[in-house]
Specification:
Layout lengths: L1 E4 L3 E4 L8 H39 L5 H18 L20 E3 L13 H4 L1 H28 L4 H21 L13
Antiparallel strand pairs: 1-2, 2-3
Helix pairs in contact: 1-2, 2-5, 4-5
Length: 189
């Protein structure tokens, strides 16, 4: 499934044919090293983001595009794996992973309007929607967890709900990280 976001961010999350019942039970343990890595990378990204906001205000250019887009890709892979959208273990990489099923493509934004630093304030309505979507995705993932244990497949409707929430989160994060131009739409597609 491919989704294009304002012509800048593309998120691909294909639905797997089958899901591993055994892997499903140990996913939390398998994610622990990724959570530690994500914590370290996230702290560095937060500092880079603060500096980036200042640089965009002064110069109109995003200075940490490569790093922040890498954090966005990595976070999306971890979230998709955590919500059972893929069984393939995510790589410990901020770069492109062409062999990984979850793909996030972020072209460089070029010149940004200097007042784009107010994007955090403009993102508040999206954060409220995202909060509700992530609750829905958590409920859908729990039901899918039970379904995968029984039938070995992620139900298509539940997959759609969860994948849409992950795409929405990625789209909003790209906007807040100042690595995309347009204001994200209030859309799940």
């Amino acid at each position: 499934m491919t989704t294009e976001l304002h012509g800048t961010v593309e998120v691909r999350i294909p639905r797997p044919e089958k899901s591993s019942r055994l892997l499903l039970l140990f996913r939390g343990i398998l994610l622990m090293p990724h959570f530690v890595f994500l914590l370290v990378v996230g702290l560095i990204a937060y500092i880079a983001l603060l500096i980036n906001y200042l640089l965009v205000l002064i110069t109109g250019r995003s200075a940490f595009f490569g790093f922040l887009s890498g954090v966005l890709r990595y976070g999306t892979r971890i979230t998709a794996y955590m919500y059972f959208l893929t069984d393939k273990y995510p790589p410990f990489s901020l770069g492109d992973a062409p062999d990984y099923p979850v793909q996030v493509v972020v072209p460089p934004p070029g010149h940004l309007h200097r007042w784009r630093v107010l994007s955090t304030i403009l993102a508040i309505p999206h954060l409220i929607v995202l909060f509700a979507l992530m609750i829905a995705a958590s409920v859908a993932s729990f039901i899918a967890f039970l379904a995968v244990l029984v039938v070995g497949r992620y139900p298509p409707g539940l997959f759609g709900i969860t994948a849409s929430a992950v795409r929405y989160q990625t789209r909003l994060n790209a906007y807040v990280y100042l690595i995309t131009h347009g204001y994200p739409p209030f859309s799940l597609s």
